[in-house]
Amino acid sequence: MKNSAATEKHAVPPLKAGLTCSCPRCGRGQLFNGYLALAPRCMQCGLDYSFADSGDGPAVFVILFGGLIAVLAVLAVELIWRPSYWVHAAVGIPAVLIATLLPLRVLKSLLIALQFHHKAAEARLDKRK
Fold first, then answer.
1. Average pLDDT for runs of 10 along the chain of length 129
2. Domain residue ranges in the chain
3. Predicted structure pTM score
4. How many CA atoms within 13 Å lie on the side-chain side of 110?
């Protein structure tokens, strides 16, 4: 018979929990209450989400990579068709919003799932003597 703690620890792969925005322990409960607001705990297994602190990591990755994609899309439109400014606004604004807001929730969920999987925590000073 397997140890239940060991089975529970690796019950849900971090990639699956991150991409589905679900609880990193059970994989069934929702991680978020709103678009980016974390729920206080999992409604299925009761995991307290107070450990979760993704910080600015998701936003930095999204700005760097999503911003690059959006800027390249707008630049391609300019170089190919040379449209007027209102067309740039009609293409550029949705491109920036789609390239940044859509992956932000999934990336935040993925970083929280990886944090849970690797038991990452805030650094503490070693008080041993």
1. 45 92 95 95 94 90 90 90 92 89 94 92 75
2. 4-116
3. 0.81
4. 13
